Each structure stands twice: as C-alpha cells, then as structure tokens.
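*** Query protein ***
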Amino acid sequence: MDKSLIETLGDELHAALRGRRTVAPLTSRHDGISVADAYRISLRLLQRREAEGERVIGKKIGVTSKAVQDMLDVHQPDFGFLTDAMQLEDGATVSLAQAGLIQPRAEGEIAFMLKADLRGPGVTREDVLAATEWVAPCFEIVDSRIDDWKIRIQDTVADNASCGVFVVGREHIDPRGLDLAALRMEMFRNGEPAGSGLGSAVQGHPAEAVAWLANTLGEFGIPFRKGELILSGSLAPLVPVVAGDRFTMHIDGLGSCSIAFA
C-alpha cells in the first residue's frame, strides 16, 4: 500500500474520531491490505493526534481472550497506542460526547506499569514481570470508528486497536507476589453482574500477552519504555456502554476501579 493511501486512510480515521462518526471497513474497500499496512495507517492516525498535543504514555493489547475473539470474529490479538488524552480518573463520570465515544464497550483487564525498558524479539513472561513496577485493575472503554464493529484484524489495528478511553485503579500491587493467571475479576454494570473472568483468559497469563506485544512491536522497531503503561487485554466479553451506566470491577488481590457515563 503506497504512502499516499496510508496517509489518506489515517486521516479518514482521525476525522471519524474527531467527528464521532464511523466509516466503512477498510478491508471492504481495499483488497490485500496487510497487518503491516494497517499498522502504518495507525501510525498516521497517531501522528495526527500528537500534532494536536497528545502524548504517548503506553501501549495496549486487544482481542487477547477467546471470549472477545469469538465476539468480534477476530482471531488474533491487535495492538495500539495509549495517549494522555485517553486516560480518565478512577471513579470519574464523563459524557460520551466529551470522551469522544461513538459505539463504546467496556472491558475489565490488568494494567502493567513498567520500571524498565523492554525490546523484542525474545521477551518472555519472566522478563515482563521483572520489568514491571506494579499492576492494577483497569477499565478500557473500547470504541470503533468502523461501521457497526464490522472489523477484521486489519481494521482494528488501523483504528488504533479500537481504543477509546481507560481508567486505572488507585491500588498498585507488585506482581511478583501474585499468581496473575489465577486472579478473578468480577465486573458490574449499574450494580448488576456484567461479566467475570480469570487472568488466564488472556493468553494463559497476562504477562504472556504483554510479552507478545513487546515482541510484535519489536518487529516494527518500537520498544516498551520505562514509565509506560501496558494494558494486557480483556478478561471477559465486552459489555456495551450507554449514557447513565456506571461500571465497577474488582480483581482479587488487586483492588477495584470504576467509571460512569452521562
């Protein structure tokens, strides 16, 4: 895919993000688009956001659990960038319009804060844990700029892994004293159960997913940096979000977080 088309599609997704509208799937309009092409489109989208003053503070992995893969019919993980403009305070109430959300869904996951750089290839689960300062419960509110979530892997990678906004819990725990794969998450929407799952839902272990992302981005020459936040993927199926919803979640051994929408 040539540079001019890469830039055109990145600009189209940026305009959709800012205009809170969706576009037809890229894969329905451009035969042969590769994941590498999609990643270059996402970099163009990121470039536009950085030009507006946003700053990269981490990375995210999506579509890591079988439940989410089956829900979206996307059967490999995706990846994207987190910026400071995407992060909301734990317990915040935000309007969907203010957050720039179009067709949001909530997912509960484990966030990793890095205390050392990581650069793939060759990063292991053990390397991830050694480089992690703390882990915490996290809500990621995913969103798609693609019509009706009709995505293939190339569509979601191009669209910054369908990222919307996220919230990280206030309790920060050293992961080396925990069995992250065995931790259970319970999520609630307006006080009613909305999903549950174990850390093992994410590629067998959340740190395994983080290692996968470090190695995948390493192929593009992109490292993990000390001080970056890495979101490791949803532990349960995604839950649609509408105005008036309040989401809370608790992960054994990690604590809780919450977010509400007006």
Notes: The chain has a mean pLDDT of 93. The domain at 3-261 is CATH 3.90.850.10 (Fumarylacetoacetate hydrolase; domain 2).
